[in-house]
Write a structure and sequence with these properties.
258 residues; alpha+beta; binds fe (ii) ion
Length: 258
Amino acid sequence: MIQAIAPSSSTAKTEVFPSSLQVLIDRIQARVQLTPETIGECILEARVSARDLMPWADFDHPIEDSYGRQLVYSSHCFKIMVMSWRDRDYSAIHDHGATEWGAVQCFGRGEHYEYRLENSILRTEGKSDFQPGEVKLVDRYLIHQMGNLSGEYFLSLHVYGCNTPEGTITGNARLFDLWEESIQRADGGAFFGLPEAEINDRAYGLRGDGETTLRHHRQMRDRLLQILALRSDAALSLKLTGLERAIAVLSANERSDR
Ligand SMILES: [Fe+2]
């Protein structure tokens, strides 16, 4: 462990970081060219381990949160976060607000889907799961989601930045809710079924292709089942019933298309 050398405008949970994280911060600050590729290089050069991130682990996150998220470091132009993934944790489909460059290193076998939005229709671009330790790049256009169906718990390391920040870097990110058929704007985690108070704004009219909508509904259903296993909630039970019906129809359509 070494003392962190952080700019005065920075905020951080702790002023002392594991040496690998301090190397990461220093390397990003020293870079003239900040791109997804250079951030990916910085992460690999820093050789961060999952053990280094344990002070920010949040595996006991509330069941309503789709995964655990903790801020490690924040300066005026980039921030570092640690996400915690229990088995069956899955993010909602999202982008990253004002982020222009970033990267994610996943320390487990994380599932990863990328999407594209065309004429208000969300389509699956592809599935490219993480190998443990793998780094994937984040740019301003990325719409994606990641999750954990590995049966084990793991952490991931996230760097997000932009050159001309106005407000928070990942603030007002878009969440793609195919059940509500809306694009929501929110400042916090990419969670399924965000409470109204955490949604800044929304625009209706989103649609998804059959494959994307079916996967979205199954993932949302799984989060609801996890919540309802711990507490009763009439509104969520009603939503679950609707999701089950929609999943049955979409599954039948998928079978008839084969
Ligand atoms: Fe993301």
